[in-house]
Write a structure and sequence with these properties.
Layout lengths: L5 H10 L4 H8 L3 H13 L12 H8 L4 H9 L21 E3 H9 L6 H18 L5 E3 L13 H5 L4 E5 L4 H10 L5 E6 L6 H8 L6 E6 L12 H8 L7 E5 L8 H6 L8 E4 L8 H4 L6 E4 L4 H9 L7 E4 L11 H15 L5 E7 L2 H13 L5 E7 L1 H5 L4 H18 L6 E4 L7 H11 L5 E5 L7 H12 L3 E6 L2 H4 L1
Helix pairs in contact: 1-3, 2-3, 6-7, 9-10, 10-11, 14-15, 15-16, 16-18, 18-19
């Protein structure tokens, strides 16, 4: 294994680029492995789930790139940092293609610098050295930035090729105007709207892009009112990019359900491949979704009947269909009939579906149709499922009936689950007895390891934990744990 050539090693390490523990382990195998892993680690060193405030070595490495006169100035301001006595083994920053303001600020805090002025100086110098040393920047996250980076000497050459930008509206319109003058090739733009004032720079930034393909907007504030409409100008700018836009994700906290601009603009995005709308307002625009030929649809709430209509018109393109509020469907007037029709539509029009949300009652007919779906949809990788009986749900689910439903479901999965299935997420009350669960694990041997998420606390009990850990150690399951409902969604 240690004798693999560089090209193969690079491809392997690219697959591990989100797994810092594995990549760090690869550094220790030999010099060749280390040489190939370092560029992957440093391509985006800010992506990992680690405590950056505890990574003083990162601070020391970046500080080592500062010119001597800057170092002397920082020392004169009482800013201390560890001097690296030996030359660095690699030119680490030359591999870096990303820039994350918040993570860099965490690294600066790791130096022990507490004064606001000193932190400001370090931020400016670190941002400058990263931009000037990196051969190109593909990814930029500048949420909460205060430094005017577009005035740095090398910034124009670096940002002309920027692929992805994430920013928030608190940095002001003028700041975004400055970026709009330089960045013309952004393909993925993420906006965090954290003010109640309209940021006109967002629309200008969108307007200046030549090939914008991915747009995401998320409201993130506590106030419940706006001075002006925060969405209209942005939506009209996006309308002009409709021919290129293929991914659209929005979370509007305070949209007007009679919002004329949204009603006019949304149908223009008919070329979308991905539509993610995390808000109940989509309920008022569902008739427009039937015109979309999309591959990925994730919405906070639409009726099962509307979802069936979208499936029927999808032309077989749907790969992912996630309906977040599965627990609400049981209250729909024709839930039993519509949920059965929903399953039929998936079988007929979406045999290639990979990620799927399902909600239906625990009738024999629904279980029979669900099993047919599993046999037809052989590409299914992840299943989000809620099976319930209305009377049982209202009475908090009778344990005996719940265990019976759970046993029937697991037997069905053993018989008919597609070989590609890697994950199941159970909503609400899903109870499996220890005996039933162990039999399921035994029968699952020889298949790809399965991940299971559930919102039932029973699986935190000691007997269940011991059973789950046993089959984790055998590699039968990858994960099986209790999480809050929001995590399942």
């Amino acid at each position: 294994m240690s004798q693999l050539n560089n090209d193969i090693l690079f491809l392997i390490f690219e697959e591990l680029q989100d797994d810092s523990k594995s990549l760090f382990s690869c550094l220790l195998v030999n010099r060749i492995w280390c040489k190939n892993a370092i560029p992957i680690l440093w391509m985006n060193p800010w992506r990992y789930s680690i405590n950056y405030r505890n990574k003083s070595y990162l601070f020391a490495i970046i500080a080592s790139y500062l010119p001597n006169d800057i170092k002397k100035f920082l020392l004169s301001q009482g800013i201390k940092f560890c001097q690296i006595s030996k030359p660095l083994l690699f030119n680490y920053l030359s591999f870096c293609e990303s820039f994350n303001v918040n993570i860099l600020n965490e690294v600066i805090i790791s130096s022990g610098t507490t004064l606001d002025y000193n932190q400001f100086i370090l931020q400016e110098e670190f941002y400058n050295v990263l931009i000037s040393t990196s051969p190109m920047l593909n990814y930029l996250d500048i949420r909460s930035i205060s430094q005017q980076i577009f005035h740095f000497p090398e910034v124009k050459a670096r940002l002309e090729t920027l692929y992805e930008l994430i920013c928030d509206t608190s940095i002001g319109s003028v700041y975004l105007y400055g970026l709009a003058r330089i960045c013309k090739n952004i393909q993925k733009l993420g906006i965090i709207n954290n003010t109640i004032k309209v940021n006109h720079g967002v629309a200008k930034l969108i307007e200046m892009q030549e090939d914008l393909k991915i747009f995401e907007w998320e409201d993130d504030f506590e106030e419940d009112y706006f001075i002006d409409d925060p969405y209209e100008e942005t939506l009209l700018a996006l309308e002009k990019k409709a021919d290129n836009l293929n991914h659209f994700k929005i979370f509007f906290q305070h949209v007007d359900y009679e919002h004329t601009v949204l009603q006019e603009v949304l149908p223009k995005f008919y070329k979308l491949k991905t539509l993610i709308i995390v808000d109940d307002f989509i309920y008022y625009f569902t008739h427009q979704l039937r015109m979309f030929y999309i591959e990925i649809l994730c919405v906070d709430f639409i009726s099962i009947n509307t979802a069936s209509g979208i499936i029927e018109n999808s032309g077989g393109h749907l790969k992912k269909l996630l309906l977040f509020k599965l627990y609400d469907y049981m209250f729909e007037t024709n839930f039993n009939k519509d949920s059965l029709d929903y399953i039929h539509k998936i079988c007929e029009h979406c045999p290639s579906i990979e990620f799927l949300s399902l909600a239906f009652p625990s009738t024999k007919k629904h279980f029979t149709e669900f099993e047919k779906l599993l046999k037809v949809c052989q590409n299914l990788k992840s299943l989000f499922i809620n099976i319930f009986n209305i009377n049982e749900f209202i009475n908090k689910v009778e344990t005996k009936n719940a265990l019976k439903i759970g046993e029937e479901l697991l037997k069905l999965l053993i018989r008919s689950a597609p070989t590609n299935l890697r994950e199941i997420r159970f909503f609400n009350y899903f109870r499996f007895s220890l005996q039933t669960l162990e039999e399921f694990f035994k029968q699952w041997r020889g298949r790809p390891a399965l991940s299971v998420l559930t919102s039932d606390r029973i699986y935190r009990e000691e007997d269940y934990i011991n059973l789950i850990n046993k089959y984790k150690n055998e590699g039968v399951i990858k994960d099986f744990r209790f999480v809050l409902k929001d995590e399942i969604y």
